[in-house]
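writing this on my phone so excuse typos. first protein, seq and then structure
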Amino acid sequence: MKQFPAIIISLMLLTTTISAQDTGGTLRPYSPWSFFGGLNYLYNADGDGVTEVPGMNPDGSPGGLDSAPSPLVGLVGAEYRLPVWKPGVYFAPSASLFMLAYLWADDRALPAEIENRTAFVPSLLLDASFLYTIEKDRFLYSFGGGPALLIRYGFLESGVSSDEKSYDSDMPAGEQVEEINSWLWSSLRWFYPMVQAGIRYRLTNGWGAGASLRAGLPVFNLWADSDTGIADSLMLIFCLTITPPSGKKITVSEDTTPPPPSVQEGLTIE
């Protein structure tokens, strides 16, 4: 299911390519809207530097790290480009939706495996980037960045009782979810400056097919009380994008300039 958004986008791109038709003298500019799907890699620094992982503990709890490996989750979203200042510069807000799973351990929220998760966390990334674009032939290159808000709120995982306790915690699951939400919203952990680059190719029917790479920088680690390092919670987002043509068509008019007047028979100009 993690690859589902990317599969859908790939099928849409394939359908668009197959249905492409020659537009003749019709110019079809891009719509300001783009739609995308892809994968979000969220770096988890828990366990960095650990060379030995203990086994089963005497109390029956599993050994090893409390958290899961760095999650790689699917996401879908949309972007709107608004021209500003001068040609080629755009304000490009976007929204991306993805799902995460967390547990509470070591006094912090950590990514969790499916079987160990306490909180199901729908996540909405609201990006307010500015882009500089360069168009060359059929290709459009874009570069930029800006501030983003990562809106996350956890809910008790279905099948987990609010009174249930994990092996290594005396805190009930319901209270753990409250601690997870408190941690996610503290120390500006919802603030992510973004940088990005992308490429778009114009198909013959006016549609655009492309790809983008975005990085969310966890600057909150500079002041948050954390010993996991500056790179913890870094986001790397790779997406395939589609951009429909604008509904407005501009038809290139035919040359209506009258031909030079011909000399009439029998007419003499002295």
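second protein below, same order as before
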Amino acid sequence: MECKKNAPIGVFDSGVGGLTVVREITRQLPEENIVYFGDTARVPYGSKSKENIIRFSEQIIRFLLTKEVKAIVIACNTASALALDAVRDEFDVPLLGVVVPGARAAVEATHNGKIGVIGTDATVHSHVYTKEIQKMKSDVTVQEKACPLFVPLVEEGFKDHAVTGEIIDHYLSSMRGSEIDTMILGCTHYPLLRSRIRTYMGDNIQIVNPAYETAMDLKKILKEQDMENPQTSQGHCEFYVSDAAEKFKSFANSVMPFDIESTRVIQIEEY
């Protein structure tokens, strides 16, 4: 069991967005080791079919299991929405998504029962947030909006560019004029645009980033299953991608609170 306790946590996403979840895990569980995989060769997931997203997720989970991870966080809303239920029973490891923690946080945050959700095409068209929110509180109204250009803007480093403000206005003008009092950032890339979205939407909207809730759920699972790492020193993080390692590393170093020394490319289709 001691070996299991020292084992790393696997985290994956379609690209750099999942780093927002890793950042939160390192804050809440600083002693845990992490193995991260960003599927940079196949980003974005939001425009892909359900079948492909399930296949991609299976390949990545198989890769992470070669690193002997003790739990896996699917730090991608699209994969959480479309693949988590399909792959959960395939693998003998705790699997955690980001949708349920995010939905729960929004239900707790709203005062008027009107919640907005922004995400990829695939996440929005799955209506997974609406389903989960209404399971928790049936009288809540959910307004969903797909924002497919947000992911490439983040991946290409355009978060501070003027064009991003125009695209935010294009996607969110109807929500800004609505009665929602809470908005879920339903894609792990979107917290990297949080300050721009906050400025546009105004201070009266509660913005929910599911990363914190996901980290807290992970903490609870590790405690319940007696898998918490007993070490008192800072955990170690390893980073793997399917393409463009240097670009990923450069971006990651602007997001993470510590320096990333190396990022390795994996031929993920082999798994």
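The first helix runs from residue 2 to 6. thats all i got for now
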